[in-house]
Specification:
Length: 95
């Protein structure tokens, strides 16, 4: 899908189920929603907190600690632009 990164964005139908399977709410709270992975150990999440609405953040799935999130884009559109242009790659996605 993108030339410089592998990204597995979850379908709308699977987002609730996968957030439950990964226990996103338990570890990251109600204000972060997983929307995909890098196909490995990196979670891509949508930040819904009031100070960061719509920001995209990456987390290590093995250590879901809200303080360890890495902001990677200000919006879904910017995320796609960064992946497409090579500004965001599989190498720098990991938190």
């Amino acid at each position: 899908m993108f030339p410089h990164a592998y990204v597995d964005l979850w379908s709308i139908a699977s987002i609730i189920q996968l957030n439950g399977s990964y226990q996103i709410r338990r570890y990251l709270g109600d204000s972060l929603m997983g929307i995909g992975t890098d196909g490995g150990s990196t979670l891509i999440a949508l930040d819904l907190r009031l100070l960061r609405p719509g920001q995209i953040v990456s987390f290590d799935l093995a250590d879901l600690d809200i303080s360890q999130g890495k902001p990677i884009a200000e919006s879904i559109a910017e995320l796609f632009r960064k992946f497409d242009s090579g500004l965001l790659t599989s190498d720098n996605l990991y938190p």
